[in-house]
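Dear Dr. V.,

Thank you for agreeing to look over these. As mentioned in my earlier message, I'm a first-year student in the group and I'm still getting used to reading structure tokens, so any feedback on how I've presented them would be very welcome. I ran two proteins. I've put each sequence directly above its structure. The first is here:
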Amino acid sequence: MQVSGLKYRITLPEQVQQMKDEKVVKPGNRVDNIKVFQEGKWIDLDPEKEYNILSNSFIVKHEGDGYFWFKKYGTELKNTYTTFYSIMAEVIDTQKILSPKAKDGRLEIVH
């Protein structure tokens, strides 16, 4: 999943999580070094802390691309009724140009 405000490493040869009937039957260890961007700096993700996320209804409400856990385990779900297209239109209207930034290392893949 493409993310913002989150940084992590995926080590492809490592064990992938195994699921059965939407339950983890064997945890994986492919993803590690997870950090969140808070107050201007990258800090280690705290597994005991709850974090707010923002996503689209395809992923959260309709379990798109197999991401069932947002709907199953999420709390306090709120719909902003804002579309990706309206956000992009506002950015283009304000900035007049879309200029992608350089890669920032949010995702590291180790083969």
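The second protein is here, in the same arrangement:
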Amino acid sequence: MLGTNPQTATAKVASILLFAMAVMLTPSAQAQTFTVLHNFTNGGDGGTPTAGVTVDGSGNIYGTASTGGAGNGGTVWQLKRSGNGWILDTIYAFEPSTGDGKTPLGRAVVGPDGTLFGTTYAGGTGCYGGCGTVYNLRPPGSFCHTTSCPWTETILHNFGGYPDDGGEPFYVDPIFDASGNMYGTTCGGGGVNYGTVFEMKPSNGGWIESEIYVFDGGDGECPESGPIMDQAGNLYGTAIQGFGNQGEVYEISPAEPYWSQNILVRFEEGENGNAPAAGLVADRSGNFYGMTLSGAVFELSFSGGVWNYNQIYDLPGGGGYGTLVMDAAGNLYGTQYGGPSGEGAVFELARNNGNWTYINLHNFDLVDGGGWPYGGVALDADGNLYGTTSQGGFRANGCGYWGCGYLWEITP
């Protein structure tokens, strides 16, 4: 089911075009070599990474691990090149026993000021047991001259959960508008405990958080991934569930006293896929692309005052949780939680004159390596792909039978 939009097609596409250009700056990648860069041990480096990674302008890689670390609350880490190899440094370990965050499921992203921002699924002081946090990490000053220098953490918000606040942010990548305001989602909390979209504004050296939209079930439930924004300030995202359907794509727009919602697509199993856990990415023309857990990769284009849904591919073995990435040629890259092997895969959908070709870049195998990737992929300036698996690799130190996961690279 498709939703109408009160704005004209010309105005809507024009506003999306401005922010869509940012996703087109990375080159095309054709995979040739798969390399494991780091096996997580569930010790000081952390374990069970569920998020993708962030590559900064210098080629450094940042990511999170949902378990391990000194306080067993998970870690944030940095990977830097050293000669022909890499060195992983844990830049922060969460300490939930002190009221800190716990279990970061989403990426750590680089904010407008060059520092890192992210969310934790649990921990904090906002509710009994902790309903999650929003955090900021700042690098050490110039006085630090050792190879391992911890960053300084600030908790920007403790989620209070149901019924007054959001709670339990999942695979959320915070985004920022031109004014430096931050946006994200929570899977729970809000007035009926179905999740929220939140905004955080800088104020007098701190941050003020507000729920700009609260889901009630009939309009969606549990947005697991964060939204994206156009230049007009409208937010677009997915909710994995909804009343009477199997998830949706939504738009929320600034309005007084609360933001207004427009449902662009309702997913229904057997018709157009179901359970969109991944977020959205946009192309140069302002079209959106997304993926459902059932394996439907779809395109949304705006024409004639409505959003038009087109399923462009049905992935073998189902889809994944991580948001797709698009390169400069318009090809899509992502991970499958199951895939052809049933234990995860990295794939490319190559665009050619309106047609899409599925290319299996790597099949994971838990017996010989890793498996079950939750996070999506990242492209660097040279067209290399990076990502994580939640299991596989190191199999001691509480990692369990299948291991604590690893960080991988695919080079063209």
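From my reading of the second output: The domain at 9-411 is CATH 2.120.10.30 (Neuraminidase). The CA atoms of residues 198 and 212 lie 5 Å apart. Does that match how you would interpret it?

Kind regards,
E.
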